[in-house]
Amino acid sequence: MRTPSVLIFLVALSIFSLPQPASPQQTAPPGEVLHPLRTDQPPTIDGVLDEALWQAAPFVTDFRTWMPDFGQEMVGETRAFMAYDGSNLYFAFHAFDPEPEEIKAAVTERDNIRRDDWIAINLDSFDDQQALYAFYVNPVGIQMDTRYAGGQEEPHVDLVWFSDGQIDDSGYTVEIQIPLKSIRFAEGDTVSMGVIFERFVSRQREAGTYPPLDPEKGESWLTQMMPMVYEGLQSERVAELLPAWTYSNRKAQDQGQLTTEEDRGEFSLTGKYGITSDLIFDGTYNPDFSQVEADASQVDVNLRYQLYFPEKRAFFREGGEHFSVGGTGASSLDPVNSIVYTRTIVDPIVGAKLTGKIGAKDFLASIYAVDELSPAPESGEPDYAHVPILRYKRALDEDSYIGAIYSGREAGDHYNRVGGVDGLIRLGGASTLAYHGILSSTGEDSEASGESGRALGFHLNRSTRDLDFSLVGKDVTEDFRTETGFVWRTGIVQVSGRVRPKFYPDSEVFRRVDLELFSGQTLDRPSDQWETFNQVLVNAIVLTNLSVRGAYSYATEIFREEKFDKGGLTLAASGQLTTNFFASLSFRRSNAIFYSADPYQGKSTRASAGMTYQPSDKIRSDFNFTYVDFSRESDGEEIYDYPIYWGRLTYQLNRYLFFRGIVEYNEYRKELLTDFLASFTYIPGTVVHVGYGSLRDKTRWQAGWEQGSYVDSDDFLEMKRSFFFKMSYLWRN
């Protein structure tokens, strides 16, 4: 009679020993440890959650919003599932939506899904609160990835991972596979990572997370991660080779004829090797740092400072977030944008990087590049510049750290050497203090001593649900130079502060209203005069997702030891008006300065309009109009007006292949630019690009008795033409 009892007991025990599917009621509350399911049968990444794996894998739910407000229920339930094997992390999402026909998703190129609906995995792979990977996927499986560290999110990291998604009557589902070779993590039998799962609903401009973010901690994501523990991860050493071949042909006008100025093919080789699972060496020979698309034009007249263009080259972009220095780029007035700006390395012929952790709390990042200068013949100028950059950080409590940085540029006898310390201290749940102290030395080796300068700064910041506050201080001497960075002004002492109370009206029209008060006072050392910038700004989210902004400023600026007025009125609005149509408008009317040897006061209008229209999930059209003018105040004469028209049409055949055409007309310079591109990307690194571009001016060649010249014309003449082909293949072990 005891046998049936034993059998019943064993059957019951076996049933309760099997992995059981979780439910919303069984979701682990914030602060507990997540344990993904270990599997020997990896899922097929097709966006359909039909494998037994996902029926057994634990999941979390009860996502809560952090935008536009904290702690609200989202438009639909979200479930995030977790699993793994020895070599991969697996995640799946089921994002429920009561209006699936309103889900915004497009088959588009990688990294182009910000305005779509999406889900994301924010992964602190070392669980040290110092940096995180962010993996974004839209409802049809298109990817975007970023890397966040030191208060800076670096876009377009381009890791190798896999995803797919499907829209159905309940909402959409997504599957994700992240190879361990593609991320850095600490070795060990037990590996802990931090995670925040995220979802964005485009039509509501609504973002939510699990675990829910604490409104009293505001933007401190790294300190709110939920621990996730893995057993038996394989720490395989990554090894990659990326051979690439590029052919380019460029022609330019010469006495009325297009003649070839470049016709060459080049081979390059880039490699990556994992010294450990968290320390990686990258090397490249004859690197192809070409961009497949030209920088969009900016207004380039009447400038006091050089224009800033973002880095687009993959070799420098990867790991670029680790070179951000605490307390830089801290406000709209901050003259120290970055200590390391890699676009100053214009034409490198060789490069090497070493990035990763060298201890439980120690991080190292370094770059060495040789930049080819191409001096004029017999000029005596050096042929190359050597650029070493070294970054060290030591983690402290929570996301606090102390760091050191060195960057230099050595060209012949000339040198520029920059070095110093920085850090971030978390003063409480929502408050941080970032700081830096940087010294520079610039000169010639043949001289006894060069010029020395310093840049000191701090940024005190507090961010909660109801109030943001910041205080910034700067001291930058006239002789401070960083030839590997981007500093747009020296010789100043500056203090600025911002207070931003946030309101959440119980209204069907206004969902959130932010009121910002900003004041900055700057001492211009060369003139020993003070200038000021004071602004009142109101930003509101109205209806579902329309953003409306208005600002008025009173400001002055010192130029050539003379004080000018700079304040004015700004109005702007933007929003995803329908699933297929996005629009933005901005207008500013302000006092302005004409920067010249003999400057004078004036008035300026700056306006822009943009739109994106997607008639289908594979076709996208973008248009942008920019207009700037300047009139002299004394007599009202218009000195210049500068309109730029820009349009782009993209046909995305599938997630791998797209065709794109760009047309840009600069009316001020009377230039017409056309740019056409066919691009195939299987995974980052395995690509084929074919491009064609031309530049036309409203001019013509007029021959003369002895020599001719180009003169104005009503017709366009092709001044430049280019064709390029690039093919590369990523091999990894």
List the helices and strands and how they pair.
Blueprint: H1 2-17, E1 37-38, H2 52-56, E2 59-60, E3 64-67, E4 78-84, E5 88-96, E6 118-124, E7 131-137, E8 143-149, E9 152-155, E10 162-168, E11 171-179, E12 190-201, E13 206-210, E14 226-231, E15 239-254, E16 257-276, E17 279-285, H3 314-317, E18 336-338, E19 348-357, E20 362-372, E21 384-395, E22 401-411, E23 414-426, E24 431-444, E25 451-463, E26 467-476, E27 486-487, E28 492-503, E29 510-524, E30 529-542, E31 546-559, E32 562-565, E33 568-576, E34 581-594, E35 600-613, E36 619-632, E37 638-652, E38 657-666, E39 671-683, E40 686-702, E41 709-728, E42 731-732
Parallel strand pairs: 1-4
Antiparallel strand pairs: 2-4, 3-13, 4-5, 5-11, 6-7, 6-12, 7-8, 8-9, 10-11, 12-13, 12-14, 15-16, 15-41, 15-42, 16-17, 17-19, 18-27, 19-20, 20-21, 21-22, 22-23, 23-24, 24-25, 25-26, 26-28, 28-29, 29-30, 30-31, 31-32, 31-33, 33-34, 34-35, 35-36, 36-37, 37-38, 38-39, 39-40, 40-41
Distinctive features:
733 residues; eight-stranded antiparallel sheet; mainly beta; globular; Immunoglobulin-like; 3 helices; 3 domains
Number of helices: 3
Number of domains: 3
Give the proportion of residues in helices: under 10%
- Note the main sheet: 24 strands, antiparallel, barrel
Number of strands: 42
The CATH architecture of the largest domain can be given as Sandwich
Distance between the termini: 60 Å
Describe the structure.
The chain is mainly β and 733 residues long. The protein has three domains: 19-231, Immunoglobulin-like, CATH 2.60.40; 308-489, no CATH class; 504-649, no CATH class. Strand 16 and strand 17 form a beta hairpin.
